[in-house]
From TrEMBL:
Organism: Sylvia atricapilla
Protein name: TMUB2 protein
GO biological process, one term: ERAD pathway
Superkingdom of the organism of origin: Eukaryota
One term under GO cellular component: membrane
Transmembrane segments: 98-118, 125-149
Domain Ubiquitin-like: 4-69
Main location: membrane
Keyword field: Membrane, Transmembrane, Transmembrane helix
InterPro entries, per the entry: TMUB1/2, Ubiquitin-like_dom, Ubiquitin-like_domsf
Length: 151
């Protein structure tokens, strides 16, 4: 009686059900469901980061069956090793999950390769400023690709 059901949703699309009282604080919710990892966990409700650990769920208008998104930051903790996020058991592929943002860099690389193909085979169509621009865009995309995939 008096408990509300909160759905904790993780980045890997898994969900966990949390039971809490409306008068519980954000800090109590973190310590109850993420013991030892409170400082690493970021809770997001309706696009707002729940930073104030003393705010109650009622004051944040968190009601029954609401969804709170959970993100574990990569902070260094000496006290406890980071536990893996809850998810389906079994082997998982390393790297980024397949999505629209993940496919953006390879798509841009293919477009750049086509640009270079046309520059080499149809050089009469490319002026000096166009060639310099192609070089600049290639360098920029290379740095962005290493930034995204080099983590």
């Amino acid at each position: 009686p008096g408990l509300i059901k909160i759905r904790l949703k993780f980045l890997n699309d898994t969900e966990e059900v949390a039971m809490a009282r409306p008068e519980d604080t954000v800090g109590v919710l973190k310590s109850k469901y993420f013991p030892g990892q409170e400082s690493q966990m970021k809770l997001i409700y309706r696009g707002q980061l729940l930073q104030d650990q003393a705010r109650t769920l009622r004051s944040l208008r968190i009601t029954d069956n609401c969804v709170i998104h959970c993100h574990r930051s990569r902070g260094v903790t000496a006290a406890a090793p980071a536990l893996p996020e809850p998810g389906p058991a079994g082997p998982t592929a390393p790297g980024l999950p397949l999505g629209g943002g993940t496919l953006m860099v390879p798509t841009v690389m293919v477009v750049l390769a086509l640009g270079w193909y046309f520059r080499i085979n149809y050089r009469q169509l490319f002026t000096a400023p166009a060639t310099v621009s192609l070089i600049g865009v290639t360098v920029l995309v290379t740095f962005l690709a290493f930034g995204v995939y080099g983590q």
